[in-house]
Amino acid sequence: MYKLEEFKQLVKDFSDVADFLVIYIAEAHSTDGWAFTNNFDINQHRSLEDRLSAAQILVQKEPQCPVVVDEMNNVSAIKYGALPERLYVLQAGKVLYKGGMGPIGYHPMEVRWLLEKIK
Description:
Helix content is 36%, strand content 13%. The protein has one domain: Glutaredoxin (3-Layer(aba) Sandwich). It contains four helices and four strands; from the N terminus they run H-E-H-E-H-E-E-H. By secondary structure, the protein is of the alpha+beta class. The chain starts with a helix and ends with a helix.
């Protein structure tokens, strides 16, 4: 949960200059797929209801911003190359920052540096 705490701090520090949104996408490490130990018990989403239910686990962690759910055809994940996770900064419809593929390329500090320049 360290990454979530770092993300929450970004929201807290920059909510005056940026709108934050989490798009919950397909589960990268589902229990019935490529699972890790010490991970949440979430099966692959077979319906939108499954995905909404899984997203509630994140919502309960209070990410400090709205959480929306990708469609079952994964349009957002495909458009943004987001699986398993990725950070973006957009301004006026243009991508200012496209983070690397998570978890290795997930660097909230890079977003912090960009938002500090904007602020």
